[in-house]
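Deviation from plan, reported transparently: zinc ion complex.
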Amino acid sequence: TVIHRADYRPPEWLVPEIALDFALSLDATRVQATLKVAKNAAGSGTSLLRLNGDAIEAKAVTVDGHAHNDWHMDGADLVIELPGDAHDVGIETLIDPSANTQLSGLYASNGLLCTQCEAEGFRRITFFPDRPDVLSVYSVRMSGDKAQFPVLLSNGNPTASGENGDGTHWAEWHDPWPKPSYLFALVAGELVANRDSFTTKSGRKVNLAIYVRPGDEERTDHAMRSLIASMKWDEDVYGREYDLDDFNIVAVSDFNAGAMENKGLNVFNTRYILADPETATDGDYDAIEGVVAHEYFHNWSGNRVTCRDWFQLSLKEGFTVLRDQQFSAHRGSAPVKRIEDVRILRAVQFPEDSGPLAHPIRPDSYQEISNFYTATVYNKGAEVIRMMTVLAGMERFLEGTTLYFDRHDGEAATCEDFVKAIEDGAGLDLKQFRNWYEQAGTPRVSVGMTLESANPTLEGEGATLGGRGVTLTLKQATAPTPGQPEKKPFLIPLRIALFDRETGEHHGEELIVLTEAEQSFTFEGFTSLPVLSINRGFSAPVEIVAPVTTEDLVFLARHDDDPFARYEAMQQLIVRHLVGAVAGTLEKREESQAAIGAAMGAILDDAALDDLMRGELLILPGEAYLAEQLTRADPTRIFAEREGLKRWLGETLKDKWLALHDRVSAVPYSLEAEARGARKCKTQALVYLGAADPAEAARRAKAQYDAATNMTDRQGALMVLCSLDCPEREAALADFHARFAGNMLVIDKWFSLQAGSLNPKATEHVKALAEHPDFTMTNPNRVRALWMAFAANAQAFHKAGGEGYGLIADLILKLDPINGNVAARFVPYLGRWKKVDEARAALMRAELERIAAEPTLSRDVREQVSKSLEA
Ligand code: ARG
Ligand code: ZN
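Because the crystal trials were delayed, the predicted structure below was used instead.
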């Protein structure tokens, strides 16, 4: 069944209060729910109360304290006939958390009990109107064996606890803030807390605790620092203050997503909490800071103001991603953060937007909402709101968000409510801008630039104006996406600068706002055609096709004062070269290659550049982004051209790579930007050397591995060793495995390094790893570590003959009955068949059809597979 946004109706019944009583057990938890229900004046007045369920049975139903038989099941839903307008409805259910391999609802992880209710997991615990516009005040009581479940947590404030005298104990929690069911959480088990506190700007002292398995508490300091910094930043920038006396985080090792913003009780995947220098990379530290902030920020953008329905998901996710990006930019290097965010957008969201699963940030329909927790809803959603900050300026934008929070506090709102609040509060007209919410697809903006011919009759006047006019002509076009054959023009804000060729300077950045399919803008005061720097800071999530010569790109890569634009010029230089090489349209290969070599050499030599930025500028554009620039291509050719360029750069600049590796290897470990930059460059230098001089790279990588005091250096060295067929490879992998045995997150790295490796035998390695005793299909992190790394490894996944496609299809079929949510995440890799050569496309389709033929697929996989075959 397809659910449509246009079919939204207000709930028939509201549930202002709910009391939940849990008798906890790993395999038989009894749940007694008491719902205060009230007919909604905005509904049709039906006497039928429909409560959603999923894989649960009602053991008993009472109404106003009396046994009630006037109910029936309608599919998975419980429908109760009620005589009046307000009642107390009691329902008892019995669930087996240890059998819950879907990890949705109440489940067991390593002896712990925990929950994941977003989006529709609450209905796996008890019957309820499981939709985000039904807000209730929750009172929770739980009891269980004290030895097995010493810690008992739920949302809100702890109100009472005690012993039962029979080895069991109990606790009560009350959350005063009405919330939708998807924000409910319960955790029980043996946990230890890292505690701290934060005093809010109005003087509320908040007790903070991060709960982990005993032994892991030493690795929670970074998460705690990140949390405290987030609380402060949200007060300082958005004026948002925390609203309970306690804020708890629990980390669990079995988790479908990254983390969850349950009110007052965030539940995290351990990978976004645990870190110390020996086991976590710099990237892991950044990810923890970002995700901790993200979940905390949801307390306002998501919890205090929630979503009316799941079509509005980007209301909370797009906005919260923007907020966490802004926070991380403030904590570290803002330019580097911007580059990283754009890299992810291009690598993941752009392909989604041009493929069979393309959808607007506010989708119009879905079969399974879990499939819409996508890079489009999250990352493009953030870009769309970021454009509002470009149009209004941050100060006025914040007046808009303040109005939004004031206006909708305590409500379940829509994306339209958000846009309206920004219009009113920031003073913008966003009429046309709303197309970003309605239309999928990445707009392509083509730019033409002309210099007005010198007009002799205007010579004098032209001279006083300081020269001639430059006209930019911009055309926008967006390719059709499924269900949207025609696209209306978007409103596209582009920051630009025009560099004078003679002086190497520009006369200030300008903002141009494209609203038509085609539009021209003229700038006065030039004597010759300037060098165009456009979409500076990536002010709009579009593709730019601009008349910038190789020479101009080299100039911008060296001189652009906007760090993002400088990075972009470097990327463009390489993208054009590689795309031309793959498409067979590259004219002067040697010259083009030489230009790249010169630009990269200049980056290596530029003493004014910090190493964090240098490391960023040295990264070659990713294969997925390169594939986006081609209509259809053999992915192994993209891979080969990219590796070829890497090898050539490795050889040509060999002395510089060696010197860089020597220099940065001498920088001692710290978490400061300078040392992190050094580590980033260290691995990049090894990567280029590995392509050019495997023996020297192996020697250096082995030395780096042996001397490593931290995971960034160790993992970087191991990655390079993994890619080489050298004797050091096996030894280093064995050492790594033995050294970190028992640390699940590090063993995940061991799996993904091998599965994502450039090593020509990667497929063989992956098949063997799938049989390794440490591999399991029930832990999502482990499944992703092995199989997502493989699916993203172009040379292995796309190897001629289709073996890689078969392996991923086998995985999907095997994983689906265990965890459909995670299984569905692998379908897009097979779904991109239109972008590869026809021989491969046929093989990919055949695998999709093999999956589709399975009669008992989850709704998750079914939707993704059928859409991938249709388009
Ligand atoms: N709201 C959570 C987060 O952003 C993610 C929940 C994931 N749920 C899911 N069904 N995939 O921050
Ligand atoms: Zn989120």
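Residues 118-119, 256-257, 259-261, 294-295, 317, 370, 373 surround arginine (ligand 1) (CB under 6 Å). We consider this an acceptable substitute for the interim report.
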